[in-house]
Amino acid sequence: MARTPLSGIQHALRAGDYEAVVSSVGASLRSLTYGGRDLVLSYGADEVRPQYRGATLVPWPNRVVNGRYTFDGVEHQLALTEPERGHALHGLGVWLDFQAIDKSPSHVTLEAAVEAQAGYPWRMLVRTTFSLNSEGLTQSVTATNEGLSPAPWGTSAHPYLVAGAGHVDDWTLELPADSVVHATPDRLIPRELAPVDAAEPERYDFRAARPIGAAQIDNAFTGIARDEAGLATLRLTDAAGAGVAMVWDASCPWVQLFTSDQPGGAADPAHRAAVAVEPMTCAPDAFNAADYAYDAGLIVVEPGASTTAQWRIEAIG
């Protein structure tokens, strides 16, 4: 019997000049290319997925501060999966092995259940489809509450986008977002929502496309401008104007950006080698939405009901 790689079963997809590989562990986008050019920071099939690259984040994206929250009058404590900061990070699905339930040369649909457990006592059936066509790679995530009571919910993806040769400092970013969440520098606990030009606009204000330069970003943004179809678009390009875009619908009013600043600095090959772009259905720490003065966007899924979010990665140039 053939050995399964450490990242799980590999699902290779192709459509026109696009090629992608989706790994079953965490329903993760392991690679995506256009005409042989990388659009995301990839990793090896036999590599334990680093930095949540390409993972599907369920039933919450980002952090639950201290892993603790109260929902419907009951306090819950999650396992602390970000021990260096003391939080529950990126949900419960990132190490689940998703099973393929439908597949063609250009798409695959994967399914897994987040079982009811200590800290999250709801059973959520998660179905995600990766589909390639001439517009790029589209991912949709649908969750159905198979539990007995309403469940708190959020989702996102975690691709690290690559504009071309060089590093983050060399690329130009366009993100039409009006507001940013400021967080504590040590534990990244959300503090306040502020206009992107209120403080350090050189770090946060990319409403007009401009070089990223030395800006270090690990923040959530909202108040995002959308086109007539309700789509938001982030663009990341190199000096020649080629690069990659991420497009998402109204199901995701938030987006997290991370310029991949690593503790080891330039000695780490991943240091500022990509920009993680995470369209999110809710803000960081949305399970504690009542603690914040802004709308964190927490979704509550009734028993038997479903909710869906969708985004697309496409080449520029």
- Overall form: globular
Q: Work out the helix count.
A: 1
The percent range for strand residues is 35-45%
Number of strands: 27
Query: What is the H/E string?
Result: EEEEEEEEEEEEEEEEEEEHEEEEEEEE
Rg, alpha carbons: 19 Å
What is the multimeric organization of the chains shown? single chain
Give the structural class: mainly beta
Largest sheet: 9 strands, antiparallel
Low-confidence stretches: none
End-to-end separation: 43 Å
Helical content (DSSP H or I, runs of 4+): under 10%
Strand order of the largest sheet: 10-11-12-13-27-23-22-17-20
Overall pLDDT, averaged? 97
Structure description:
With 317 residues, this protein is an all-beta fold. Helix content is 1%, strand content 44%. It has one helix at 201-204; strands spanning 10-15, 18-23, 28-34, 37-38, 56-57, 63-64, 68-71, 74-77, 88-89, 99-104, 107-114, 124-133, 136-145, 151-153, 156-157, 160-161, 172-174, 177-183, 190-195, 210-211, 218-224, 232-237, 243-248, 254-258, 275-280, 299-301, 306-316. The strands form 7 sheets. Strands 10-11-12-13-27-23-22-17-20 form a 9-stranded antiparallel beta sheet, with no helix packed on it. The chain has a 6-stranded antiparallel beta sheet with strand order 16-25-24-21-18-19, with no helix packed on it. The termini are far apart.
